[in-house]
Amino acid sequence: MTISLLRQWILTPISNYRLFHNFTKQDFFGQFAASIGGFLWLFLTPVVQIITYAFVFRFVFGIRGPEEFGETSFVIFMVIGYMPWFAFADAVSKSPGLLLEKAPLITKVMFPTQIIPVVGTLVPYLTHGIGFGVLLFYLAVTGYLSWQWLWLPLIFFFQFLFTMGLVAILSALCVFLRDLQQLVGLLVFIWFFLTPIVYPIGMIDSASIQLLFLFNPMHSFVNIYREVILLDHLPLINLQIIVPVSLLSYLGGGWFYMRIKHAFGDVL
Fold first, then answer.
1. 23 neighbors 119 (Cβ within 8 angstroms)
2. What share of the chain in percent tops pLDDT 70?
3. How far is CA 71 from CA 65, 81, 129, 132, 230, in A?
4. Is the overall model pTM greater than 0.90, yes or no?
């Protein structure tokens, strides 16, 4: 039973490729439908947020880039962590409403509903991955490019799997627990400040508290991006954390979704 459910979960985008492609295309371009700014919002939103955070934490609180990153400016240090986080936060924040928004379709048409959380994760990662690619291009031109960057697509892929597992669980649970829509937004907000994105972890004096950050998978993702891009170094301890955690999230979330999806039609 478990193996059969996981097989369906993993193979869904392949075995239902046309449906998967249409859903992805519709959701991706639907973000900009009837919008005057169109694709401009793709870059404007993160840029405004980055400028705001950079101003507050650099000029108001006087936070500088950590010494181990040399002459790297705080803005570059922060943005490298913020761009991947933005993709993660966008996907997780929208996850509670994924199935609820498509309730009329789910209750009237027979189709593999497990496509919905996959698309719901992929679209934010495509959207914000474009901005991350622009940032990497800028950093490559300014002299940061190295062969260690070959790790970046793999790290981004593991982050995608980690996120997809969470999206699958949250979207499924929200069918039965509608209050999750408010709770998830609050948890993402707290998670953001518990991840060293707008501050270097070196600001925390206690070594024991710094070790606790290893239980936060997003800290490991953010740290890998920074060390690979800025220091030309792959931190193995973070890699050893994200690989099993990402696979556990993806497979566990997929199994959970497949296990209870038969009840969606009765509740929705």
1. yes
2. 96
3. 8, 17, 26, 21, 10
4. yes
